[in-house]
Amino acid sequence: MKTGLSLPAYPLFRLDRLWPFLLIGLLGSFTAVTALAADAPAGASPAVLERWRDWRFGLFIHYDPSSLKGTEISWSRAGERRDRNETITSGVPAAEYDNLYRQFNPTKFSAPEWVATAQAAGVNYLVFTAKHHDGFAMFDTAFSDYKITRSPFGRDLTAELAQACHAAGLPLGFYYSPPDWHDADMCTPNHARYLANMKGQVKELLTHYGRVDVLWFDTDGGTNMPETWDNAALWPMIHALQPEILLTKRCGGWGDFDTPEQHVGGFNNTHPWETCMTICQQWSWKPDDRLKSLTECVQTLVNCAGGDGNLLLNVGPMPDGRIEPRQATRLRELGAWLTKNGESIYHTRGGPWQPGAYGVSTRKDKTIFVHLLKSSADAVKLPAISAKILRAHLLGGGPVPVQQEASGITLTVPAAERNAVDTIVALELDAPASAVPVVKP
Prior knowledge:
The chain is 23% helix and 18% strand. It is an alpha/beta fold.
């Protein structure tokens, strides 16, 4: 993970940088020349997308031997990044970084505890970093010796986590980085061999670990086109193995949903999206990293739902395998808030009022939930809507005076009845809330 997407930086006259595209015709699959001009195939079915949007809230977990240094996963590794045409000299030297796994032994890791913490947070799915850009496989792959089963830990952590998720009924996704900065073949004349191994690892993840609901690809800049990763062969394989899987649009631009990073996406009820954001500041664990407050976490989730998007909130476990206690506590606090207010988040859609100075709104069935996040005035004015408001009340509380006129709607919530985190007003309508056209406040 890293903020910002960039275009390939390769000069056209650098033939050594053009070879990945020249080799496409030699890959030996049906992709051949058509891969260069192929359009993205049809993705997940509307029903699968709707189910995922109903979940609204997921837990991201970034974890690998980089936690031993307390530095950022992958991005703190100094060395060559051929997919990005850059060499980094600052950070942890590659020779040191690449050997951290020899000390990696998270003896306090417990997959059931991770899953219990996730469920206590109120999340409806979990995405785990099976392999990040640094190339270290957190699963027992046959295509590399750079993997967790060759560490002192010696166990397939991903398998244990998958088993715990399936046992608890928690949908599971895998983060997988197509670029691998540790692999000597990637973005060299041996790139075809690298692609074969990459597809082999993806196949392992989709066949050895049960149902997989999300494959969270992440190329994140650099050379990132469908032909770079042989999408025309990769996509059919993925969907043949896991027909209902969802994919991020971070592998040559193909996929099912957008992924704004470290910021809340703008209102969009036509293209599915998911904000990925850290609970602290860094994706992987960092000692004394600044932890977001409960208010920040709740309002991030609410703003995502109000924009008609999901939130994938990230934690980075400690070197010993535990989710840091203060992060786990924050997750439980967030879950407690959702226990009381989750009906205004889960299974909702954003709108009908777009986010504005008042806050945001969500809706389901015949109810609109107005989340007053910003306005401090007793009276909050909103544009008129087509449906009639039959009743207005605070979620879990008493009635709210409401005036509905042709010119607009006024809700009155005195300061004494406001909640510092989120004041939620439920408006019960005489018609389905989904039928109300979207309105700009």
